[in-house]
């Protein structure tokens, strides 16, 4: 994939973005058209998992949630109660279909036709691989991995999903958002010429913090505060900024050949923020020598910015998840301005299209590939900033560094442990660079 020509990539991305059917042949997976109910299992009962299940249930398809799985019982109970209150007739989860623990996903997957994967992303490759092994259609949240071996695991499972004609949708919902679809179609059709540069941003105040409790083991503390540990989150450049990075790759019709950048912990420096940085700035260099600048930061009290813009040989474009999409020529004349009135909610649209395909017995979606490679772009960006090196795409793919612990158990130790004062080691560019690639 990393060496795809732009024209071939555009042809491929038109399919995987959700616009064209990959196959109208009957599915070989668990559910085929004509069945009465599509059975859904949720793996990962946090806020995003609950939200994704709401979106699935709002799709209009004949769905029943039949199983829930989470590492923590309180998370599972909270999600069950929330779903049951809103969707009473569509929640059919008996007590023996509520699974808790590190291996809970295996049992929940067995009971479903479609699996929603919404745990912290460090678990995504293993859960996705198991869902495909069991022959299930999948909706999985972004990002799809936190390290390069995890990306490779997802790519292998994606190839198997294709072979089995299992639909896979990834929660990079801008791919299902009308303004992005319409604008990027026009870009790929040549409306503003060839893309020469761009800027993508996710600057915000950061996310939640959950205080440590005396009774927690180190494993539980890190699991509860997963956003601040790379083996679970991948840092916010991967977990959150992947949305904007994915737009850069989609617009360019390719992936970077090298990445360099800088980052630090300038503002969120307390022990409660684990090991992650609070700011990153990257240069993504593509094969045609064009450069996209990428910026993300978690600073409280700043002006937020979450959008994308690109410059081309005949004009420029501005894009925003708020519904904006404007193409201009270089004289300032508008080529296209998107009207967002009446556009569907992209979080719901991705589920609507997925379940429509499954209901009709169609194979349409193989989002795992672009989800994996945009995730990889973020991972390489993190490595570039942590090490202070220029990281080449092809070299990065050789990495065997796995961030997760060797054993998953509540009394097991993660690889990163706090010092005597409760602080975690943070990447220092120029030092211990072999730890990251």
TrEMBL record:
Q: Which superkingdom does the taxonomy of this entry point to? A: Bacteria
Which Gene3D superfamilies does UniProt cross-reference here?
Answer: Dihydrodipicolinate Reductase, domain 2, NAD(P)-binding Rossmann-like Domain
UniProt-listed Pfam families: GFO_IDH_MocA, GFO_IDH_MocA_C3
Ranges where the GFO/IDH/MocA-like oxidoreductase domain occurs? 180-299
Q: Which InterPro entries match?
A: Gfo/Idh/MocA-like_OxRdtase_N, Gfo/Idh/MocA_oxidrdct_glycsds, GFO_IDH_MocA-like_dom, NAD(P)-bd_dom_sf, TAT_signal, TAT_signal_bac_arc
Q: Residue ranges of the Gfo/Idh/MocA-like oxidoreductase N-terminal domain? A: 38-164
Give the Gene Ontology MF terms in alphabetical order: nucleotide binding
PANTHER family cross-referenced by the UniProt entry: BCDNA.GH03377, OXIDOREDUCTASE FAMILY PROTEIN
Q: What is this protein called?
A: Secreted protein
Q: What is the lineage of its organism?
A: Bacteria, Pseudomonadati, Bacteroidota, Sphingobacteriia, Sphingobacteriales
